[in-house]
Amino acid sequence: MTEQFLTPPHHPGQVVRCVDAARTFGHGDTAVVAVHGCTCEVSAGARIAITGPSGSGKSTLLHLLAGLEAPTSGEVSWPSFGSTAVERSRDIAVVFQGPSLLPALDVLENTMMAAVLTGTDEATAKERALAALEIVGVAALVNQLPETLSGGQAQRVAVARALTLRPRLLLADEPTGQLDATTGRHVINVLFKAADEAGAALVITTHDQAVGDRFDEQWEMRDGRLFTPVKGELL
């Protein structure tokens, strides 16, 4: 029997929290503070856009939320997730800005990959991948290689790959940054649908205010500092 793509149970409360978290790259005179101490939280089911110009620290903050970067000072925690990085990797999925599909693998294999690498058996990973590709609207492309895909199609596959993890936190770094406006709107639609299907909180970074305006909540990064967009106060 084909596995149904069921929404996981609802988990109330915070999925990730930063307390005075900062990230510095380099040392001494060459050190660059990408994110100054910020305090924020993402709740289950949240829809958040982190806006701001290039170089403002948006991607670094997203990487802190994902656990891909460790804070230089302060703390990042995932209150309702597992206590280890391996356990969290099953709850957090990231869609990256640039090309992220492996060129030697076809669409189905690329989509299965994240689930397989986090311990899902191959048969189950295949069923999840096929269901996810259907959700994002590219099921007809299962046998194609990445080089044959448009930018929008490749991003949809990347979203499908993330969805196979059944994430409770879905993060996307400038998912429309390399796309035209029409394709970008479609990709954001896909991300909303994917988050709804997975029952996941969704956080993206974007320098496009029109994209940010589609989200329930907006955070703004300026020179590595996190501000609320309405009150103009540091979070």
TrEMBL record:
Q: Which keywords annotate this record?
A: ATP-binding, Nucleotide-binding, Transport
Q: Which InterPro entries does UniProt cross-reference here?
A: AAA+_ATPase, ABC_transporter-like_ATP-bd, ABC_transporter-like_CS, ABC_transpr_LolD-like, MacB-like_ATP-bd, P-loop_NTPase
Quote the Gene3D superfamilies the UniProt record gives: P-loop containing nucleotide triphosphate hydrolases
Against Pfam families, the record matches this protein to:
ABC_tran
Supply the CDD domains for this chain.
Answer: ABC_MJ0796_LolCDE_FtsE
Q: Which terms does the record give in the GO molecular function aspect?
A: ATP binding
Domain (ABC transporter): residue spans on this chain: 16-234
Protein name per Swiss-Prot or TrEMBL: ATP-binding cassette domain-containing protein
> Which species expresses this protein natively?
Kribbella alba
What does the organism's lineage look like at the top?
Bacteria, Bacillati, Actinomycetota, Actinomycetes, Propionibacteriales
